[in-house]
Amino acid sequence: MSTNENRDQFRPEDHENDHFIMTSVVGSYPKPKWLNRAKELYQDPDHSFDEDDYQEAKDDAARLITNEHERAGLDTVVDGEMRRNEMVEFFAHRIEGYEFNGPVKVWGHNYFDKPSVVSEVEYTDSWLVDEYKFTAEAADRPVKVPITGPYTLANWSFNEAYDDDDELTLALADLVNEEVEKLVEAGARYIQIDEPALATTPDDHAIVGEALEHIVADIPEEVRIGLHVCYGDYSRIYPEILDYPVDEFDLELANGDYDQLDVFKDPEFTADLALGVTDVHVAEVESVEQIEENIKKGLEVVPPEQLVVSPDCGVKLLPREVAYGKMANMVEATRNVEADLDEGNIDIERGAPTPADD
């Protein structure tokens, strides 16, 4: 299946424009305040709010946010990761071989419950299949499944069991492969591997590529595999990442005002580009017109049939109304750009790096 066919399986049947630029989200979304309160009640030993009560609250939140994504008009949705906490901690609790010894200070007054790998990692029960099935049942649109990648799971943990982090990364990649196989059996067709550590660490693109080869082994080609890489020095990993066995690269570029856009123009970007078009670090909703201009930045790198748009990253730290506004405006801007493409009103020179100012 070609990359275009792989993406076009998510095109809505009632899509009005000839052109199709898929809209999606990276993953996380602000939790309703009452869900955080439910967690506090569940963790309070003096309160009668039990496991069933807390499960019902998470189910309700997952339905609500899935619906919110659909109401915004997104082509592919997630549940906003309503059942997850921190992106490494959530998975480490589900992988045999990890243990927790308390929070580690990471910056300012912020702490991260950094796990340790103390023995060989093993896959026992599925991590996400129940979550996916629930969301797919609640959704009318295709569901994307974000998974923290093995490089980040290794890099953001203490390694006390393997000779080096590369060995740990590949061991974890085999477990991710098992999980992806189970998700595919359950019906998932869009998997996103999150590797926020990649663009911040020099010269590790090779081990990430090898890990991805493990992850996609025996996965049907109609299953769309994306790789999300948070903001960093992309020149460290491009063009080497074009050899990765993925359909789509999800990149955080709005945050840096597209100052790294030229990195991806030469050599030619051969995969799909999932372009961040709203800045998740700014608690203001960008106008439809501004997002349209951001989308056109992506057309300087790839043709419309290789372009996907999304927020820069997860939006969980934004006020909920701001997160929704960004998504709704993003969808409206995308449909406007599609219509302009249909009319032949957009003429963008692609592939040529922007000349530097004298």
**Continuous helix count:** 10
**Percentage of β-strand residues:** 15-25%
Average per-residue pLDDT, rounded, comes to 93
Separation of the first and last Cα atoms: 45 Å
Which structural category fits the helices and strands?
alpha/beta
How many runs of DSSP E, i.e. beta strands? Answer: 12
Residue stretches low in confidence (pLDDT < 50, at least 5 long) are: none
CA-based shape: globular
Largest sheet composition: 7 strands, parallel
Q: Helix amount, in percent?
A: 25-40%
- Following the backbone from N to C, one meets helices and strands in this order, namely HEHHHEEEEHEHEHEHEEEHEH
In spatial order, strands of the major sheet run 1-12-11-10-9-8-6
- Rg computed from alpha carbons, rounded to a whole number of angstroms: 20 Å
Could you please describe the fold and organization of this structure?
The chain has 358 residues and is of the alpha/beta class. The chain has ten helices and twelve strands. A seven-stranded parallel sheet has the order 1-12-11-10-9-8-6. It has a three-stranded mixed sheet with strand order 2-5-7. Strand 8, helix 8 (205-216) and strand 9 form a beta-alpha-beta unit. Helix 7 runs parallel beside helix 8 and helix 9 (288-299) packs across helix 10 (320-342).
Brief overview, please?
This protein has 358 residues and is α/β, with parallel strands linked by helices. It has helices at residues 3-8, 33-43, 51-71, 89-92, 129-138, 150-155, 165-185, 205-216, 288-299, 320-342; strands at residues 22-23, 96-100, 104-107, 110-112, 115-122, 145-148, 158-159, 190-194, 224-229, 248-251, 272-278, 307-311. α2 (33-43) packs antiparallel against α3.
